[in-house]
Design brief:
heterodimer, A: mainly alpha, MetI-like fold, 2 domains, 14 helices, about 0% strand, B: mainly alpha, elongated
C-alpha cells in the first residue's frame, strides 16, 4: 500500500507542474503584473519596493527564469500582495479557507450520503416507481442552474417561511454550533444537489451490475442477510468506479462553491474570488485559482488512495 | 447525426463493411432513427428545443415590445394581459426579454459546444491514433485542464479580456474540450486496433486521411452524444457567468443576466427570478434528455 501511495504522489508532480505553468502564463497575460504596478498603474508603491519586487521575481530576466522564481515564491507560500488591502494573499486565503472547507466539506458529505442512499435503493428496486422517480430527480438536479436553485430556496425558506437565515455564516454575536448549522443548511443543500444527482446515477448502474455478480449470489447462498449483502459486500464493490467520478467532480464542487458563496454571502474564498474580480485584485484571483487547483489535485490523490483501499487488485497491480 | 454519407462514405471500399460490423453496421442509421423515434422523452425534448429555438430565433418578429423599451408607468408589474410574464425594474416586458435572451443563451451554448466538441474530437483522435509520446503529452494536458476549476478560470479569462457574446462563446468553447477529448480518444483506441484500419494503412493512406475518413466517421455517435450534453453545460456556464455580472453585458438580455438583475427584487417581484431560471432549466433538461436518447440510439446496450 505504501508503494502504491508513493507512486500516486509521484504521478501528481507533473500534473502540479502543468497547472503551475498554465497559471503562471495567465499571471503574465494579466494586466497589473508588478512592472505595471511600478509604472504607476494600480496601487501606489515606492520605487524601493518596486525594485525589490522586480529583483525577487526576476522581471528583467527571460520567462523561464521568471517562472522558476515565481514557482519558488509560491512554494514558500508567497502568492503576492493584495492590491487592495496590501496584505499577503496567502494570509487572506488562510483567513477565508475554513469557511470554504466547512461549506464544501458539508456539501460533499451530504451529497455522498444522499447519493449512496438513492443509488443503492434505486438499484435494489430497479425499474420500480422509486427508481423512475430517482431518475427524474437526477435529470432535474443535473440540469438545475445552481444560482437559480439557490435563489428559489432563499425565497421560499428564508424570505417567505422565515425558517432559515437568508445568508451569512453565523448571526453576529451568536456563533453557537446550532446557529452555524442553521446557516449551513441552505448553501450546503444548494451546492450538493448536482452531485447527489450525478453520483446516485453512477452508483445505481454500478450497483445493478455488481448485484448480478457471482460473489453476491455466494454471499446470499451463505445465508447472509440482505442488508449485509447489499450494504456490505455489494456497495463496497459498486463504489469503486463511483469514487473516481466523485474525484473528477471536485473541480466542479469548487466552481459551485464560488457561486453558492456569492448567493449566500458566505465569507469563504469563493466569494473573495468574485469580489477580487470586480476590484481587479489580480494577485488574489491568481492565488485562489492556484490554491483551488492544487486542492483538486490533492483530493484526487486522496481518492486514489481510497480506490486502493477499496480494491486490492488495483493496489497490487501498481505496487 | 450520422447520415448515410457520413457512415458509409463513398470512398470507403466495400470490404470495410465486414470488420466494422460490430459498431457501425450497414444501415446502422436506420436502426438509429428507429431507436430514437421510439424514445418518447427524447422526441419530446427535440420538439421542445426546436420550438423554443425557433421562437427565440424570430424574436424580433414576434416579440410584443422592444427588448429595451422602458415604460416607467409599468414597473415590476406581475403578469397581466398586456405583459404576459410581467415587467421588470424599468418596466421592460419580461416575455420580450426572455425571447431575446434565449436567442443569445441558446446560440452561445451551440457555438461553445460545437467548438469544444470539435477541438476535443480532434485532440482525442490524434492522441488515440498516434499513441506514444503524442498521446502522453495531450492526455496529461487534458488532466491539467480538468484539474483547474472551470468557472474560476473563466472568470479570470473574462477579467483579462472582457468581450461580447461572441468572445464569451469562444472562451467557453475553448474550455469545454476535455470531456469530448477523453471520450473520443477511448473510442479511437478501440477502432485503431480493428483490421480495416490496418488495411487502410497497408494501402499506404496517410495518417491524416485515415483519421479523417476512416476513424472519425465511426466515432460520430459518441461525438454527437458528448456534443449534445456539452450544449447543456455551456448554457449553464454562460448563465452562471452572466449571473455573476461577467457574461454578456446589459442592456443585451440573457437568461443569466436577467437573473442577476432579479436577485435584489426576489421577495417583491418573484416572477422576475422564476421565469428566466425556469427557461434555463427546461432547455438544459431537454438537451440532456435528448443526449441520453441519442446515447441509447447510438449504442442500445448502454441503456439499462
Amino acid at each position: 500500500m505504501a508503494r502504491y501511495v508513493a507512486r500516486r504522489v509521484f504521478q501528481m508532480i507533473p500534473l502540479l507542474f502543468g497547472i503551475s505553468i498554465v497559471i503562471f502564463a495567465l499571471t503574465r497575460a494579466m494586466p497589473g503584473d508588478p512592472r505595471d504596478v511600478c509604472a504607476g498603474r494600480g496601487p501606489h508603491i515606492s520605487q524601493d519596493v518596486c525594485d525589490r519586487l522586480i529583483e525577487r521575481f526576476g522581471l528583467d530576466e527571460p520567462l523561464p527564469v521568471q517562472y522558476v522564481l515565481w514557482l519558488r515564491a509560491a512554494l514558500e507560500g508567497d502568492l503576492g500582495i493584495s492590491y487592495l488591502s496590501y496584505r499577503p494573499v496567502s494570509e487572506l486565503i488562510v483567513e477565508r479557507l475554513p469557511a470554504t472547507v466547512e461549506l464544501m466539506g458539508s456539501a460533499f458529505l451530504l451529497a455522498a450520503i444522499l447519493a449512496f442512499g438513492l443509488g443503492v435503493f434505486s438499484a435494489v428496486r430497479h425499474n420500480t416507481w422509486f427508481d423512475h422517480l430517482g431518475a427524474g430527480f437526477s435529470f432535474l438536479g443535473i440540469a438545475m442552474p445552481v444560482f437559480w436553485f439557490g435563489l428559489i430556496l432563499q425565497m421560499v425558506f428564508a424570505v417567505w417561511l422565515g425558517w432559515l437565515p437568508v445568508s451569512g455564516r453565523m448571526t453576529v454575536g451568536d456563533g453557537s454550533f446550532f446557529d452555524r448549522l442553521l446557516h449551513l443548511v441552505l448553501p450546503a443543500t444548494v451546492l450538493s444537489l448536482r452531485f447527489v444527482a450525478g453520483w446516485s446515477r453512477h452508483l445505481r448502474s454500478s450497483m445493478i451490475e455488481v448485484l448480478r455478480a457471482d460473489f453476491v449470489r455466494t454471499a446470499r447462498a451463505k445465508g447472509l442477510s440482505e442488508r449485509v449483502v447489499v450494504w456490505g459486500h455489494a456497495l463496497r464493490n459498486a463504489l469503486i468506479p463511483v469514487v473516481s467520478v466523485m474525484a473528477l467532480d471536485l473541480a466542479g464542487l469548487f466552481s459551485g462553491a464560488v457561486i453558492t458563496e456569492t448567493i449566500f454571502a458566505w465569507p469563504g474564498i469563493g466569494r473573495m474570488f468574485v469580489q477580487a474580480m470586480f476590484q481587479r485584485d489580480y494577485p488574489v484571483l491568481m492565488g485562489i485559482l492556484l490554491m483551488g487547483s492544487t486542492m483538486v489535485v490533492v483530493f484526487n490523490l486522496v481518492a486514489d488512495v481510497v480506490y486502493g483501499l477499496l480494491d486490492p487488485r488495483i493496489r497490487d497491480r501498481y505496487a | 447525426m450520422p447520415s448515410r454519407a457520413a457512415v458509409d462514405g463513398p470512398d470507403v471500399p466495400a470490404w470495410t463493411d465486414a470488420p466494422r460490423g460490430g459498431h457501425a453496421p450497414p444501415r446502422g442509421d436506420r436502426r438509429f432513427w428507429r431507436h430514437l423515434r421510439r424514445n418518447r422523452i427524447a422526441v419530446g425534448s427535440l420538439v421542445v428545443l426546436g420550438g423554443l429555438s425557433l421562437v427565440c430565433a424570430v424574436a424580433p418578429l414576434i416579440a410584443p415590445y422592444d427588448f429595451d423599451a422602458i415604460d416607467l408607468a409599468a414597473i415590476r408589474e406581475p403578469p397581466t394581459a398586456e405583459h404576459w410574464l410581467g415587467t421588470d425594474d424599468l418596466g421592460r416586458d419580461l416575455l420580450t426579454r426572455m425571447l431575446y435572451g434565449g436567442r443569445i443563451s441558446i446560440l452561445i451554448g451551440l457555438v461553445a459546444a460545437s467548438l469544444g466538441t470539435g477541438l476535443g474530437s480532434l485532440l482525442g483522435a490524434v492522441a488515440g491514433y498516434y499513441g506514444g509520446r503524442v498521446e502522453e503529452v495531450l492526455m496529461r494536458f487534458t488532466d491539467v485542464m480538468y484539474s483547474i476549476p472551470t468557472l474560476p478560470l473563466l472568470i479570470v479569462l473574462a477579467a483579462i479580456a472582457p468581450g461580447g457574446a461572441g468572445s464569451i462563446a469562444l472562451t467557453i468553447g475553448a474550455l469545454s474540450w476535455m470531456g469530448p477529448a477523453r471520450i473520443v480518444r477511448g473510442e479511437v483506441l478501440r477502432i485503431r486496433a480493428l483490421e480495416y484500419i490496418e488495411a487502410a494503412r497497408a494501402l499506404g493512406l496517410g495518417s491524416g486521411r485515415i483519421i479523417a475518413r476512416h476513424v472519425l466517421p465511426n466515432v460520430v455517435g459518441p461525438i454527437v452524444v458528448a456534443g449534445t450534453l456539452t450544449v447543456g453545460e455551456a448554457i449553464i456556464v454562460e448563465s452562471s457567468l452572466s449571473f455573476l455580472g461577467l457574461g454578456v453585458q446589459p442592456p443585451t438580455p440573457t437568461w443569466g443576466n436577467m437573473l442577476m438583475d432579479a436577485q435584489s427584487t426576489m421577495a417583491t417581484a418573484p416572477w422576475l427570478s422564476i421565469f428566466p431560471g425556469f427557461a434555463i432549466l427546461v432547455v438544459v433538461l431537454a438537451v440532456n434528455f435528448l443526449g441520453d436518447g441519442l446515447r441509447d440510439a447510438v449504442d442500445p446496450r448502454s441503456g439499462s
